[in-house]
Design brief:
Strand order of the largest sheet: 1-2-7-4-3
Largest sheet: 5 strands, mixed
Length: 200
């Protein structure tokens, strides 16, 4: 598939011929503006141009109903597919041979990997960094409590041991209390029985 140089981050719409079929593709950059000189020089790199070409060819030829994101070493492409309403109004030929027309339009959002990582790291509202911070805080507390050189940790551990001992004693006290009452009632009944027998 011979293509001209991609002009990202400037948005562009192209028609690609793959075998005997014509595809309409919209290219959009994500995370950088059209006037970003660094992004422009990044997309002008020969390797990036080749990666874009291979990714576009792979997306067009897979035929998936919901195409999945495709990533290379430095870029991630998020493909979306929708109906090309005017597809049946066009006719394309190559050397008087009619070509097929794909009834869908592919919109490809191209994102630089480094920009994606910086966005994720700087996003304080995301759930993952919050969970990591909370988990780290819990680990620090647990390590502090288990530190043998920490007097406060020893006192807390001693209190926990005492509380565990109290909890261990309470079930035994509850079990023995009913048994002692039954024993007392049994002795009272026996004493009354023998006293009546002696009187008779």
């Amino acid at each position: 598939m011979d293509v001209e140089k991609f002009r990202l981050p400037t948005p562009e719409t192209r028609l690609f011929i793959v075998e005997d079929c014509v595809y309409k593709v919209k290219l959009r950059s994500r995370g950088c503006s059209e006037t970003d000189s660094k992004a422009r020089s990044f997309f002008e790199d020969k390797k990036i141009q080749e990666d874009l070409k291979r990714i576009i060819l792979a997306i067009l030829t897979t035929g998936a109903e919901s195409p999945a994101p495709v990533q290379a070493d430095d870029i991630v492409v998020y493909p979306y597919k929708c109906r090309w309403k005017a597809a049946d109004k066009f006719n394309f030929y190559v050397e008087n041979v009619p070509l097929k027309i794909c009834p869908n339009v592919f919109t490809l959002h191209v994102e630089i990997k480094n920009a994606e990582k910086d966005k994720n790291l700087s996003d304080s509202d995301s759930d993952q960094p919050i969970r990591l911070r909370r988990a780290k805080r819990r680990r620090l507390v647990e390590e502090e409590d288990s530190d043998p050189d920490n007097d406060d940790g020893e006192s807390r551990n001693a209190k926990r041991d005492d509380s565990n001992d109290d909890e261990a004693r309470e079930p035994r006290a509850k079990k023995t209390a009913p048994e002692s009452r039954v024993y007392q009632l049994f002795n009272a009944v026996c004493s009354m029985f023998w006293s009546k027998k002696r009187e008779s």
